[in-house]
Design goal:
Length: 479
């Protein structure tokens, strides 16, 4: 598959023409306006945020074994602070319970968590202070998670599942005798969400994200059509009951703490590496029953079709619950990573993009656009911008000016170039050598048991012994 990455285009006009030639349904502004859409203040939960950038949650597989941050974790949060982004979405996934950690080094609720979380906030605030930014114009959340089917607290998978799932279990077999969590066990996990929210509030966080994305427990619960009992059923409201219970319990325990939700708004199809071409190929959905297994409706004939019916209903219900912040993501790192993180280069366990990554960026932008216009009570953060490289700011300005997103979420770009929003808002030119080129080393490293970071472009990670190991892994793959 040949495609031209955005950095290939020398002007915004040429990039816009390229988007049009691909028949994509998004555009980009020709010029950036100082003090324009991206610098517009916005009211969220009684605070006036001073710009439209959001730091997406990104964990570094670099906590201590008992769930506390390390120097590397603190460095990342410090850099998030230096970004100047007015919304910090969670920083990274924080497991509410040991058995829900996605890896042994994920941050996790433990007896020392209040101090840990306060130190992360301190690092973030220091970063802002260094750039002369006040602490008023920023809203900071903590992303609460239980990894459910993809839990690996000690290394190997130790799944806690909401329901049986033929396709996923073909790919990620369950240990013998794994049974779906009972309603009582889920209630116990729900209590841990509330305990974590209390700690986050005491540490000084403004909001918590009750994470429902990327295949983890609360996302899986939204798909539990065939689950008996209180937390499953045909109706979305039945499948939302566990999520809703957690939200209400946090609201009761922490009335002044705001709540956000990050949702994989559509599952879309599963992919695998075609052994002949190395490219991503659609996995046959044999045995898959969308009416039983999917959160959003997947049309079997074309599993790439975006259908946001349930995502719209989900967010409308969230608005009724008093949730005013949504973060839209798509798919999962476990079945369609090319969609979840559009990239030119796959991670070591991935595949070459099955199509021009700009098409997957377009799907992200479309999802947020449709939800933002369908549920205006919620302020939405969009995903999928990093791949746009030089033209990220022009596209971001285009989207915010049209009301297609309230905030532009940045993931990998903030690992390689954390100060991009700060530079942009100050009217400085972008530092091209720091732009993330989606090499995927920040994913390849943890897939091979290392900490995550931008090994190609961040000098701090470049100097680590892990950088050499990564090169060797990539050379081995290329042979
Ligand atoms: C190293 C790494 C860690 C991530 N960790 C999380 C996480 O903890 N929680 C989450 O919701 N998403 C996580 N993501 C996904 C990002 O938040 C984001 O959705 C994704 O990278 C796509 O945005 P981008 O194109 O701007 O990078 C992670 C991504 C990367 C690259
Ligand atoms: S390793 Fe760096 S350049 Fe590569 S995808 Fe991650 S942030 Fe981008």
């Amino acid at each position: 598959m040949r495609f031209s990455p955005p950095g290939h285009f020398k002007s915004s006009e040429a990039f816009a023409a390229h988007l049009a030639s691909l028949d994509l349904d998004f555009g980009c502004d020709q010029a950036l306006t100082m003090g324009g859409a991206l610098a517009q203040p916005i009211q969220v939960h009684g605070k006036t945020l001073d710009n439209r950038f959001c730091a997406h949650p990104m964990e570094g597989w670099d906590g201590t074994g008992d769930g506390a941050p390390s120097e590397l974790t603190l460095r990342r949060w410090h850099r998030f602070g230096k970004s100047g982004a007015a919304l910090i979405w969670g920083g990274e996934a924080f497991a509410v319970r040991e058995d829900g950690k996605a890896n042994p080094r994920q941050l996790c609720l433990h007896t020392g968590s209040e101090g840990d979380l306060a130190s992360l906030l301190g690092a973030l605030r220091d970063g802002r202070r260094e750039h002369g930014l006040t602490q008023d114009g920023v809203l900071v959340g903590l992303q609460l998670t239980h990894s459910g089917r993809f839990s690996r607290p000690h290394g190997p998978f130790a799944p806690r599942i909401g329901q049986r799932h033929a396709i996923l279990e073909g790919r990620y077999p369950l240990p013998e005798n794994t049974e779906p969590l009972t309603d009582g066990e889920l209630d116990g996990i729900g209590e841990c969400y509330v305990a974590a929210a209390r700690v986050a509030q005491r540490a000084g966080f403004d909001f918590v994200d009750v994470k429902a994305c990327h295949g983890y427990l609360l996302h899986e619960m939204l798909a539990c059509r065939s689950r008996p009992g209180s937390y499953g059923g045909e109706l979305l409201l039945d499948r939302m009951r566990f999520f809703e219970r957690i939200v209400r319990a946090i609201q009761a325990a922490c009335p002044t703490l705001a709540i956000g939700v990050r949702l994989s708004a559509a599952d879309l199809g599963a992919f695998h590496k075609d052994p002949t071409t190395g490219r991503g190929a659609r996995t046959e959905l044999e045995g898959f029953d969308a009416a039983r297994h999917a959160f959003n409706w997947i049309n079997d004939a074309n599993a790439q079709q975006l259908d946001l019916l349930e995502a719209t209903q989900f967010f409308a219900r969230c608005a009724d619950l008093g949730i005013a912040l949504g973060n839209v993501t798509l798919g999962s790192p476990y079945w369609n990573p090319h969609l979840q993180r559009p990239a030119a280069y796959p991670p070591s366990d991935g595949y070459q993009p099955p199509d021009d990554p700009l098409r997957f960026v377009a799907t992200h932008l479309r999802a947020t656009r449709q939800l933002a216009h369908a549920v205006p009570q919620i302020q939405f953060v969009g995903t999928g911008y990093t791949y746009l490289q030089e033209w990220l700011p022009h596209t971001a300005q285009w989207a915010v000016a049209r009301g297609d997103a309230a905030f532009i979420g940045l993931g990998r770009m903030l690992l390689s170039y954390p100060e991009l929003p700060h530079d942009l808002l100050a009217g400085r030119p972008l530092q091209a050598k720091l732009l993330c080129r989606t090499f995927s080393d920040c994913t390849t490293a943890p897939r091979n048991g290392m900490v995550s970071g931008c090994f190609p472009l961040d000098p701090y990670y470049k100097a680590m012994p892990e950088a050499e190991r990564l090169k060797a892994i990539k050379q081995g793959l290329a042979r």
